[in-house]
Amino acid sequence: MSAVRGEFSSRFGFIMAAAGSAVGLGNIWGFPTQTASNGGAAFLIAYLVLAFCLAYPALMAELTIGRHGQANAVSSLRKISNNLLQKRFAFVVGFGGIICAGLILSFYAIVAGWMISATLEPIATLVGSESSSTWLSEQSLSRNLIFTAGFIILTVAIISRGVENGIEKWSKRLMPALLTILFALIIYVMMQEGAMTGLKAYLVPDFNSILDPELLVSALGQAFFSLSLGTSVMIIYGSYISKKENLVSLGAYVTLIDVFIAFVAGLLIIPAMYVAQAQGVEIFSATGELLSEDTLVFQVLPALFDGMGTIGLFVGFAFFALMSIAALTSSISMLEAPVSYAVERFDLGRVKATWLIGTIIALVSFTIVLNFNVLFGLVIALTTKFSQPILGLMCCLFVGWIWYRNSLLNEIQQGCPEVASSLFWKIWPWYIRFICPIAIGLVFVSSLLG
Ligand code: ILE
After folding, report:
1. 316 Cβ closer than 6 Å to some ligand 1 atom
2. What is the residue extent of each domain of the chain?
3. Which residue, of 199, 320, 354, 407, has the fewest CB within 10 Å?
4. For ligand 1, is residue 332 a contact (CB within 6 Å)?
5. How far is the CA of 51 from the centre of ligand 1 (A)?
6. How far is the CA of 26 from the centre of ligand 1 (A)?
């Protein structure tokens, strides 16, 4: 074991880091496009309810496992296991989450690479370098490999500096930058023609679709993905929280920020779609359905920015910088999951472990880039559709069925004595035992059938 474990130095630092992990492409790209294709505000309401009623309790399960274990995901799960069989199960769940995080990072880095090249493209246009601008804007092997590698190096550089000087310091810088750009863009888009129609579509619910099972399943899936559940990340971030901290309120802040940013991103993306529509870019079919979720960010919105002239260059720059920052704060958490394990299990130095794992992940990313049509969709489906819900479910089973109720509640009570007298926390272990696994199982089965 390494001599001194890292720890977040402040509440604010933890909240920024965990919210940074949660707030990613899932919020700024996934949530608004899902909302637009699933009945607007009805999806928003379902998402809000499910995020607080199901995803928050599951997030608390993962944070509590980590804070109790004060170790990487595998060791933390082992500490609450009572026999050899359970310890084996702990390894499967913890190590499975670590692999899942690494695989998510390997496709996330490719998408983030596109975001960074799209951020640089307006700069190349502004300085008049047409050849660079064309290279940056077109899909090519060289561009994709270079920017994927660049993004992984950036992630490695932050993680190799450790918890306080790496994760915490950079999350504290990047998250406020993300919020500033997001709000500046919203103000700009709201002033354009067509924005109000978009706002109405986003905020006025069609109550007929709110109980549509497909909508509920998508909303729950989105809530779990967005809180980075089932990837060991929240276990490892939980392990860096001091015993004096109030875990209950920390988890609530993270959920609130995650939901808030998804909501606010909707205020940007959905009105922007209607602004684009007003400017003649085709977004919706004659029956009002979103034409394509995949092309929205890389074709529809850039077409909108192009139509704005020079100011569009600045808006495009800000938009893709926002996406790149959101991706970076999530990717550092995905790398921390395997790195913390390697450091503690094999007694490797942090810098060495980070570069080693970063290199392995880069090799996986390159393999995906080189076999894009076959592997890209496959890795996304494997991690987000299968592994995340299954591992998230297993974490709930661990806390609900294996961890002794008293020891579990004792852990949460440290730093939050009110838990002892709260009805919610009396019910919570049952929730984690029955309701969360059933709900996650439902999402999983429906996504298999869907
Ligand atoms: N939570 C992030 C997102 O919403 C990632 C999920 C890390 C796997 O994009």
Report:
1. no
2. 11-329+357-449
3. 407
4. no
5. 14
6. 5
Cα–Cα distance between 119 and 317 in angstroms, integer?
A: 5
Q: Is 329 in the pocket of ligand 1 (CB under 6 A)?
A: no
Please tell me the distance from the alpha carbon of residue 190 to that of residue 220, in angstroms, as a whole number.
29
Distance CA(98)–CA(351), nearest Å, equals: 18
User: How many angstroms separate the alpha carbon of residue 168 from the centre of ligand 1?
Assistant: 18
Q: Does the beta carbon of 226 lie inside 6 Å of ligand 1? A: yes
Is residue 27 within 6 Å of ligand 1 at its C-beta?
Answer: yes
Using a 10 angstrom Cβ sphere, with 0-12 exposed, 13-18 middle and 19 or more buried, the burial of residue 276 is buried
162 lines ligand 1 (CB under 6 A): no
Tokens 């077409």 belong to 303
Contact 104 CB / ligand 1 (< 6 Å)? yes
Quick one: which atom of ligand 1 is closest to the CA of 330? Answer: 7
The pLDDT tens digits along the chain (450 residues) read 444 678 899 999 999 999 999 999 999 888 988 888 787 888 999 899 989 988 999 999 999 999 999 999 999 999 999 999 999 999 999 999 999 999 999 999 999 999 999 999 999 999 989 899 999 988 899 999 999 999 999 999 999 999 999 999 999 999 999 899 999 999 989 998 999 998 998 888 777 777 777 788 788 888 888 999 999 999 999 999 999 999 999 999 999 999 999 999 999 988 988 888 888 877 777 776 777 666 677 777 787 788 778 888 998 899 899 989 999 999 999 999 999 999 999 999 999 999 999 999 999 999 999 999 999 999 998 998 888 888 998 999 999 999 998 899 999 999 999 988 889 888 999 989 999 999 888 877 876 776
Query: How remote is the CA of residue 117 from the centroid of ligand 1, in Å?
Result: 20
CA of 35 relative to ligand 1 center, distance in Å? 17
Assess whether the C-beta atom of 274 lies below 6 angstroms from ligand 1: no
* Residue 254 beta carbon below 6 angstroms from any ligand 1 atom: no
Is CATH 1.10.150 the classification given to domain 11-329+357-449?
no
Ligand 1 touching residue 327 (CB < 6 A): no
Q: Please tell me the number of Cα atoms within 13 Å of 224 on its side-chain side.
A: 33
